[in-house]
Amino acid sequence: MKIVLTGGGSGGHFYPLIAVAEEINDIVDHRHLVKPEIYYMSNTVEEEMLLYQNDIQYKHIQAGKIRKYFSLQNGTDFFKTLIGLPQAIHQLFRVYPDVVFSKGGYASVPIVFAARILRIPVFVHDSDAIPGRANLWAGKFAKRISVSYPEAAEHFKDPKKVAFVGNPVRKELRMPQTRNAHEYFQLVPDIPTIVILGGSQGADYINHTILRALPELLDKYQIIHQVGKNNFEGHKELINIELHEHPHISRYRVFPTLTPLELRTAAGAADLIISRAGSGAIFELACWEKPSILVPIPEDVSRDQRRNAYAYARTGATEVIEQHNFTPHVVAAEIERVINDPALCQKMKEGAKEFAQPEAAHKIAEELIEMMLEHEK
Fold first, then answer.
1. Is residue 343 exposed (0-12), middle (13-18) or buried (19+ Cβ within 10 Å)?
2. Any idea what the CATH number is for the domain that residue 11 is in?
């Protein structure tokens, strides 16, 4: 059995593919099946170690991003995709997998196109409330389509091919680590803890707003703040200036990034989480069953996050603050409103639990294995 995983442009595509690969390997071991050969084809790798840990072979394929707005890079990126197509045909022909599983994104286009030419079955998964262009195109000929949000199914023409499963989350991130969580960060359990996440690259706007709000926030709360590896040194310097005489500076913990264990432990300590609204982050929040505030990237930059945030908010699991409204005063007032309302916090936890789909990766892996077995007959 052979399977090709593809998608790219961000961790939002890469990490769900890893979650599915984990489940494929577990199911194969449990059912005593022949171990499949798993390949990852894309133009980038988010974390090479995760490929190694899951016995995934990487094949580099050129791909370029086609932007909706005018950019000189559209021209060069178009040629990258043209170069990537014969590369993808060559690599797919050599491997000739039983199925191609695509998470979408511009990096998936040459591989999915090549799969169509070679008549290899395609299985598409879309993470967002409004499917991306690559997946809408691939959905026209894909054998199976799965979506993270029920409303996304409406955008595909053949509803018989579409299944709502949620967004795959890696096993190591599905459950918060509550035991000794406060001790791990040298915090105390009787002061509310706020966790602020901006993704691996950080979120400059959120970081700057929190920095200005810190003097007020630290009078009442403990804060674990992931600022992004490129922002860390500059942020530390500003903290030393802004808070050098603050009596509660010891309540603030700042990190460039958080490892999976640190992220689970931060979730275990959290009374409230503030985050961007990428689909991966939302489904992790839902698995953790934590009250949250989402600050989506503005729609003119990313059309996905705002719609994802409001789709999640309709369950009652979160509050959404648009970036232009995310000011120090507003964030301090909203944190206080949520933290001091036990009924609202409980409603958010229940909404998160209802929204979470912890079996998403397993369901997709089961279907992929059935497609591989069917194709081998």
1. exposed
2. 3.40.50.2000
